[in-house]
Structure prediction request, 422 residues.
Amino acid sequence: MGSEMCIRDRGGRSGVGKTSIIDFLVKNQGERYARPLSYTSRLKRNGEGCEEYNFISEEKMILMRDEGRFLNFDCVYGNYYAIAKKSIDVINTEGKVPIKEIHPSNQAKIKLCYPNAVSVLIKEIGVNGEEKRIGREKADTEYYENLNEDKFDVVFANDKRLTVEENAKEFGARVYSYIKYRAYFPPICDMDRLNRKGYAMIAEEFTEKKRVTTHNFHTLSADFFQDSINKFVYQGCKVLEVGPGRGWMRKTCSWPIVTYDVLELTEEMARFLDANEKIISSAARTMIASNKYQVEVCSLADPYFHTETLCELHRILAPGGVLAFTLPSVDWSENLRGDEMTTTFISENGDKAVTYSLVFEAEKIVEILQDCGFKEIKVNEITGKKLMEKNEYISPAITMAAENKKCKLDELKIITTVICKK
Prediction:
């Protein structure tokens, strides 16, 4: 985890559940998280201990502020609040992650002191949207509704229908996996921004006939998804397909009668889809209820393969549910485009639609999925042999990769398949 890491749960209006989540993590994952010592000038509440705050006078707090001992200094509803810098440094030295609720207005100051700090927004789902809020809660709600989510490193949907323990475990996995793997991934908002622009541009031409490489990938993946459907999808269950493109899997595979929803980033692509519900959203930051789907399927998940997306898919997957997805193989990707993290679609008029394409070796995929909360992970590779058996036209992007590797097409790994459970 490294030092100089200050998780700050910046987001979330009063009553959203920030403190309960942090309390659980500090108590039950104390080897990983610790709450830094804070000071306040307010009076101690009935039954409140001194684990989180030192209760001191306004005069003393102002003096300590002037001595430079605080990370922040806030006046909230007439009371002063501050976090001791020394406390954060001690926690970092211990190899733990300091975690604390802090108002978003302190972002610049915290980043200046701790450049690796991680900002987290907690949103609330599972409550009555017409719920009346007064006073402090009303002011907080109005403030947070106007925040730009792209300014936060991590966004978490705290589902009020779940227990504190269930939410805290999902939250903890999301924060931990973000910190551990963030060097591997671009910021999710940057990925969404580029993908949204690229797929909106190419949506009209994103057909099996015009996108030959993608069609070859689908041919290689078809049996894997059909087998997954046969094993895990049953009549009446709820299925979510993430990033379905123009809907090839729904059209090609045989399905029982199910509730079939799609999660798609762009309106331009979604208009070609037939589904019970079309959810237009980032796959990493949805407002979908927790534990909703029994099965999730994702064909070519490389544009949105990110710890935030995987943690979100874990949150909305029912206990015991299955996630089945494919990625382009590292073997194919490295021998075609080296270490590039993007792919480019050329339209008929010559325009270039660029999207992300992240791929990983099987061992790293398993590690990432485990840290995001998944279990019973099975990873396999599919070579070009099946394309040769199908006797279909093979994209130059595939034959070129085999040539660059100096191997036969039936030896080139092209698709990685993954099945895991919650």
Remarks:
- Confidence is low (pLDDT under 50) at residues 1-5, 9-13, 129-136.
- The longest strand covers residues 317-328.
- The radius of gyration is 24 Å.
- The chain is about 35% helix and 25% strand.
